[in-house]
Amino acid sequence: MKRVSHEPAYVLHHYDWSESSVIVEAFTRAHGRLALVAKGAKRPSSNFRPVLLPLQQLSLSWSGDAEIRTLKSAEWGGGQVMPTGEALLSGYYANELLIRLLAREDAHPRLFDAYATLVHVLAAQEGESLVAAALRAFELLVLREAGHLPALDVQTLTLGALQGDQPYRLVAEGGLRAAHDDDGAWLLGAQWLSLSRALADEAPLTATLQAAAALPGEQRAHLRQQLRELLHYHCGVGTLRTRQLMMDLQSLQAPSSRSKGAAPLP
User: Fold this and answer.
1) What confidence score (pLDDT) does residue 227 get?
2) Which whole-number Å values give the CA distances from 21 to 14, 35, 43, 228, in the listed order?
């Protein structure tokens, strides 16, 4: 029986398996996304109970060859505190993207490292603009790792070079193309090229975060809209659950908060 010990991992989600056990959806560095049964995790005395938390780096050990392995041990990896507020919801959103877009047992070590960086950014809670830029960077990286992101340095259908001062639109069905007059969202060629270079960096989350943060405010909103459409297309649903939750929470804000210009969701 195959056994893996002390593998760096994060908990993406868990759900009930029996009266005392849960199934854990884990994202591991060397083995990708896995389903693990944590037997007895719901018991008050379980060692799993205080450890299997989202957005915390863990060290997991498991055994088995079936689709659902048996979790043997889980240890906290140390590091940052749990994000709170909208940063916590942003973390749940990132988790949902990984569950929806990554196949099980398909390793993505660079994406795992990028996710770890994103968790640190969320835990630091250094401002909504930084969190928003980090989410755009992570969305781009997940789409690329899942094979859904076209090259951002050429037009997809023609392979024509991008002109730095011309607008281009990223569309779900056709990739990157020259923007039309009625396109509501686009980026200049120079901005797409900057994002493309950042994605090729040795530390892609940090580099792409910086490239996204450098965009003017209107272009940051345009990038968010284009990535949302691409993600929804490939996830096969209208609105991701965590995204809808964030929208619902914003709609419950007091009218006075909205009138004062409450910040949009990241």
Assistant:
1) 96
2) 10, 13, 8, 35
CA nearest 219: which of 167, 182, 162? 167
pLDDT in the model for residue 159:
96
Alpha-carbon distance of 120 to 171, in angstroms, equals 31
CA–CA dist 24, 4 (Å, integer): 16
Phi-psi region of 105 (alpha: psi -120 to 50; beta: other; left: phi over 0): left
Q: What is the pTM of this model?
A: 0.88
Task: Supply the DSSP string of 54-96, one letter for each residue.
Answer: BTS-EEEEEE-SSSEEEEEEEEE---PPPP-HHHHHHHHHHHH
Query: Cβ(43)–Cβ(21) under 8 Å?
Result: no
174 DSSP 8-state letter: T
User: Which one, of 204, 200, 199, 176, lies nearest residue 188 by Cα?
Assistant: 176
The per-residue pLDDT for 126 is 75
Provide the pLDDT for residue 125. 75
Question: Taking the CB of residue 160, how many other CB atoms lie within 10 A of it?
Answer: 12
Task: With a cut of 70, list the residues of the chain below it in pLDDT.
Answer: 1, 237-266
Of 143, 181, 141, 189, the C-alpha closest to 165 is 189
Question: What type of residue is 261?
Answer: G
pLDDT value for 85: 85
Which pLDDT belongs to residue 259? 40
